[in-house]
Batch of 2 targets.
Target 1
Amino acid sequence: MADGAGGPSGVALWVAGARPRTLPAAIVPVLVGTATAAGSAAALGWGRGLNGWRFVAAAIVALAIQVGTNYANDYSDGKRGTDSASRVGPVRLVGAGLATPGAVKRAAVLSFGVAAVAGLWLAAVTTWWLVPLGAVCFAAGWLYTGGPRPYGYAGFGEVFVFVFFGLVATVGSAFVQVDEVRSLAVAAAVPVGLLATALLVVNNLRDIPTDAVAGKRTLAVRIGDRNTRLLYVALMVAPLLCVPFVAGLSGRIFAAAALFSVVLARIPVQRVLEGVSGPGLIGVLGATGRVQLVFGVLFAGGLAWGVVPA
């Protein structure tokens, strides 16, 4: 549904504000982490020894935290005036005047609340140590652009994404299946985190002009356009280099199927190297999300179905 100006309204408005292009960063680590736990049970049945309800709960936690972080980012940037009318990119609810700050803040809190409910259930059936971990995740999501000293404004956003949407989400998804931290989950989390970070890097590359004016010192603003482009390429290539090591050392050779995602990665990498900017990078952002999703599905499928019964 659209408003009179041709923009989204109603449910479509809030879906757009949730930034669907970023959601692969939430679901891929759950898929991959869960897949590393395949074969953990005594019998390898249809479920490959996996608990479906725990997978669903972990997916709800990850998606709700991602959406909550996106709304919190929209709220905080809008309140600070960082998202001006000249900004290029996906719709921003507060900055574009499409929703009040209070409404967007409530949407963020509601999203974090959904994650908390699913997370509490996971904690009850695994370990209560997940509660403080979840609290740290919520704080990290809110303080990215919120609070008196947002770390996203200081150039640490990429570290946050790699840690929380790579290591924590992947290893955590495996942990709720097997009740322990395993080396395979940690290794598989690295390429997942790198691709999630690439998503943020290309987003910040697009926003360099407006972020610099607004005083938002992202890593892209600090290192400049050229170096940010090189960083993006490195983050897209490095996961493919990780795959043979994870697949070979774990004995789950079908995980090498993730290498086929290079076919999709070629186009966004080429466009970034060619110097596309502004609105052109919106398409690159979407293409990066698709690479991440395809990589994650192939990687997870190979890890899960490559288990050889003892």
Target 2
Amino acid sequence: MDIHNSPLIFLKLGGSLITDKHRPYTPRLDILRRIAEEIAAARLENPALRLILGHGAGSFGHVPAKRYGTRQGVRTPEEWLGFAEVWKEAATLNRLVVDALLEAKLPLISLPPCAAVTAEDGRVAVWELYPISAALQAGLVPLIFGDVIFDRRRGGTILSTEDLFEYLARQLRPQRILLAGIEEGVWRDFPLCTELVRQITPADIQQRRLQLGGSQAPDVTGGMESKVRQSLTLVQEIPGLEVLIFNGEPPGTIRRALGGEHLGTQICAA
């Protein structure tokens, strides 16, 4: 198979998966190492696999980001100091992720968004994508992550991995986006979490079979809501795209998802 024409997959390692969100600046190194080995194994099984990795900030970047309100905007000297602190913590976690992936012999290159992306009011406005495309052409695995970004309107902001994946998906047209966290998927009865939604389509929302917040009916509120909304928008824009939201904690799940299995909740156009 020609690797340059093979399917492209985005995989996000959620901050809750690779760090302990209840303990500031605490990575889950054992989980990181195992995930790295599973990704390497999936690439050995399918050498033509083209993959872009991303990771969340977890208990690293979110701590100073919340303290300084960085996502909302950066203007004062104190807020710019906070901007630099968020950058430092995001880069620190990224280094740990890079180390684990390289130890697993993955041909990885980290491409920090803060140096390549310009935002406009909290959204990607400009992103020079040649380095990512060149890395894929060379058979490398590009790694991006939630990062501080200079913003034309807000001064500075933070863009999450999902924000970055949303922009990249429109440009690079992946076949699958895999969002690995510690939840089994999307729950119909959050926060009770007893009934998992196996598939979500735009018709489910339009016909009110599933609510996205703001209702007494069964809903999928909490941190999932924005993920589901972004995913529904993308699957309607990009033919053939599917998004999986699944639990990456159990051994083997990352490898199985990369191999094409449907785990957790699938979001698709129909």
